[in-house]
Structures are given as C-alpha cells and as structure tokens.
Amino acid sequence: MNSIRSVVCCPTSYGVLCQELYNREKHSSWTSRLERNAIDGKEDTPDQIFWLIRRGEAIRPDTPISETFCWVVNPNVQDLITGTYTIC
Prior knowledge:
Distance between the termini: 23 Å
Structural class: mainly beta
Shape: flat
Number of helices: 0
Number of strands: 7
Strand content: over 45%
Radius of gyration: 17 Å
Largest sheet: 3 strands, antiparallel
Mean pLDDT: 80
Strand order of the largest sheet: 2-4-3
C-alpha cells in the first residue's frame, strides 16, 4: 500500500552546466557566442543547464534521479569520459 508521503514536491532545482548542439528552433533567442566543437566541427551553445529535476516536480524520496553524461578530455584524440550525476 502506498503511503501519502511516498511522493513529495522537490524543494529546489538541480542541474548540470553543459554544452548543447546548436538548434535554431530551440536557441532562437540565443544572443551570446557559439563555439565550434573540436571533435565534429559543429556549433555548440555553451553554458546551458540540463535540469535533472526542477523545483516543484513530484519525486519519490526512495528513488534516486540520475543521468549519464560524456566529457571530452582531449579533442585531439577524441577521448571521452562517461560519468553519472546522481541525486539521492
């Protein structure tokens, strides 16, 4: 049986700063710089926030929230490191 307290509202937002591939529709109001990706040469939008959870969203306190990301370590040899952010 589920208790009333099995789902709560998240008291704050948690996000990860990242770069995203530039998308004209999504970044139509983008007024800052674009950066050329050293690996594929495509344009990225820096300083984007990937929200893991936003304030007010329903969460289960007993269920962690996680997302896997890749980081470019050395663009000359295309090294990638994969890591996971987890909120418990």
